[in-house]
């Protein structure tokens, strides 16, 4: 798969008339990266999979802990079957690497193999932060605009506890 690009992410936002604010910063590779600018909404992006079948993009606030047993129950699968996607799977499905996972990369899921899972607490944030397919910038938008972007990419999210 072709790598996801910043330009295609920004073009998508422009095409959908999404109002966003951009913050440039040094590369951020993890949630605890010292390069993370202060004041940005802190979110986690995880690509999970059910062994050898379904993929799940989980987007949640940093204060939300992932209860994998409860999540597996909500998805109707065994906890033992829910794992993290590999680096190769990340690149194959979304065209990004660890540290660059973002809802904007879901445009690369042309076969709609990834189920989007949004933590219910996301809507309480004043802004949602997402990398524009690179980890040296962050775009900030409203929760409603995030939903608009996901739906434009034909990903109807499931809200989870």
Automatic annotation (TrEMBL):
GO terms for molecular function: aminoacyl-tRNA deacylase activity; aminoacyl-tRNA ligase activity. The keyword Transferase does not apply. It comes from Lentilactobacillus kisonensis DSM 19906 = JCM 15041. This is YbaK prolyl-tRNA synthetase associated domain-containing protein. Residues 43-148 form the YbaK/aminoacyl-tRNA synthetase-associated domain. One of its GO terms (biological process) is translation. SUPFAM superfamilies: YbaK/ProRS associated domain. Keywords: Aminoacyl-tRNA synthetase, Ligase, Protein biosynthesis. It comes from the Bacteria. Pfam families: tRNA_edit. Belongs to the PRORSD1 family.
